[in-house]
TrEMBL record:
Residues 81-114 are annotated as: Disordered. Pfam families: Glyoxalase (PF00903). InterPro entries: Glyas_Bleomycin-R_OHBP_Dase (IPR029068), Glyas_Fos-R_dOase_dom (IPR004360), VOC_core (IPR037523). This is VOC domain-containing protein. Residues 4-113 form the VOC domain.
Amino acid sequence: MLVERFKYTIWAADMARALKFYTGVFGAKVIKQNDYVSEVEICQGILAIHGGGEGERTWTGLTFQVPDVVAGAAEIVAAGGSLTREPQPEGDEPPHLAMCADPEGNEIMLSRKR
């Protein structure tokens, strides 16, 4: 099978709010935008944001690797997202996971390289 492109799609009740979140927090670059679907590029990956979402909490499987999950989690909250599980210390190591949700209810995870 010839795969021409790979992207992951999430839902948004408020497209403008979702775009503001992903461009502001993750530095996403908008590569397509219309009333129904927008696409953003993050670290050479494509995230499609489809309108018509209901804003309900949904696990996505999206994970963003960041150098500091505590600082990243604070950025998520400052941008209108929420934490579903605060970063937890692990022995002498700094936290390596933070469970979060974007303002549209899409659950995402922050992780740091171990």
